[in-house]
Amino acid sequence: MKRINILMISILSSFAASAHDDEGKSFSSRPDSHAPIGVMGDHMHKTGEWMLSYRLMHMEMQGLLSGSNSLSDSDYSNDTSYMVRPDEMQMQMYMLGLMYAPTDNITLMASLPYQENDMDLNMSDSGMAFETQSSGWGDAKLGSLIRLPFLSSANHNTHINLTFTLPTGSTSERDDTPMMKNSLLPYAMQTGFDTWQVESGFTYSGHQQQGRLSWGAQFLRKTSLENNSQGYKGGDQTTANVWLSYLLTENLSTSIRLNYIDRDGIDGADSRLNPMMVSTAVAGNYVMQKTSLLLGANYIFTNGVLKGHRLAFEIGRDINEQHDGIGMDADTSFILGWQKAF
Question: What's this model's pTM, rounded to 2 decimal places?
Answer without folding.
Answer: 0.88
